[in-house]
Write a structure and sequence with these properties.
Helix content is 43%, strand content 22%. It is α+β, with helices and mostly antiparallel strands. The chain has a five-stranded antiparallel sheet, with helices on one face. A three-stranded antiparallel sheet has the order 4-3-6, with no helix packed on it. It has a two-stranded antiparallel sheet with strand order 8-10. Helix 1 runs antiparallel to helix 2, helix 3 runs parallel beside helix 6 and helix 6 packs across helix 7.
């Protein structure tokens, strides 16, 4: 009988102390308003299928199947999908970890290469554990996250360090996500305060301090970006665009659009389509 034994050498490598916040699966279905946003935690993307691009700050990078993206906390980014080969991807939010890359950037985009099968296994296993929430799923998810991190470090040249999360960051992020998902509805400061379970005045102060603008200003930016995408990509009337983007009236939309973009919505639409 043949027998081969491999002994484990216990080194003093550091553990991953980050906290898994979520894992999600998304597929583009022509209902994806694309606008730059930030998170108070790091985010990791794995592209399962399709083509598109990832916009990070002022830079845009093409992404396709088996590409991986890592973005540090508080870095503006958004995803864009091609219409003929829609993006399908998984995303992980990790709190308490700051990634360090050799080129001093706050993000990296690379192809998974030979590690595709392992990375896909870890992410789908985490998704299953969080969905089922069976006994000890938290510990299993943390161990899967560690395996994912070390596998990624084998593939690329990056490290990470631990950062302490802050509660106010989580509260502001939750408000941002709520507005990004519900911008088409009638949202007021009272609505946002009720959602966040915060005093309205404290909420405005904390959000403005952390995000650099008030909640209503942030909501207006989201609505204007959604309106721009509708103007460029649909044949909706101006009134329909205003309503779909969450503006209370066409006249108020026209006022906000002119002030923000320096042109009317009709002129913007013609400029997007190459017409004078």
């Amino acid at each position: 009988m043949g027998n081969t034994r491999y002994l484990m050498e216990h080194s003093h490598s550091h553990r991953v102390d980050g906290r898994l916040l979520y894992i999600s699966h998304s597929k583009y279905e022509n209902d994806w308003p694309s606008f730059l946003h930030t998170h108070p935690f790091s985010e990791l993307f794995y592209v399962q299928n399709g083509h598109g691009s990832i916009c990070i700050g002022e830079n845009e990078y093409p992404i396709r199947r088996d590409d991986f993206v890592i973005i540090n906390a508080n870095i503006p980014h958004t995803e864009k999908s091609s219409s003929d080969q829609p993006l399908e991807y998984m995303a992980i939010g990790v709190e308490g970890i700051l990634f360090t890359f050799e080129d001093q950037k706050e993000y990296t985009v690379f192809s998974c290469g030979e590690e595709q099968e392992n990375l896909m296994f870890y992410m789908t296993a985490m998704l299953h554990e969080l969905k089922e929430r069976r006994r000890d799923y938290e510990n299993i998810c943390h161990n899967l996250l560690e395996a994912l991190m070390y596998t990624l470090m084998r593939r690329t040249s990056f490290g990470f360090k631990v950062e302490a999360p802050t509660q106010i960051s989580r509260e502001c992020y939750s408000l941002k996500r709520y507005m990004e998902s519900n911008y088409m509805h009638d949202l007021t400061l009272d609505t946002l305060a009720e959602y966040s379970h915060l005093n309205k005045y404290y909420m405005v102060h904390a959000f403005t301090k952390h995000c650099g603008c008030s909640p209503i200003q942030y909501l207006s930016r989201i609505r204007l970006q959604a309106a721009k995408e509708l103007l460029a990509g649909t044949d909706y009337s101006i009134a329909e665009v205003a309503h779909s983007a969450g503006f209370s009236s066409q006249s108020y939309f026209a006022q906000c659009f002119q002030k923000s973009c320096g042109m009317t919505a009709s002129v913007y639409r013609r400029s997007c389509r190459g017409s004078a």
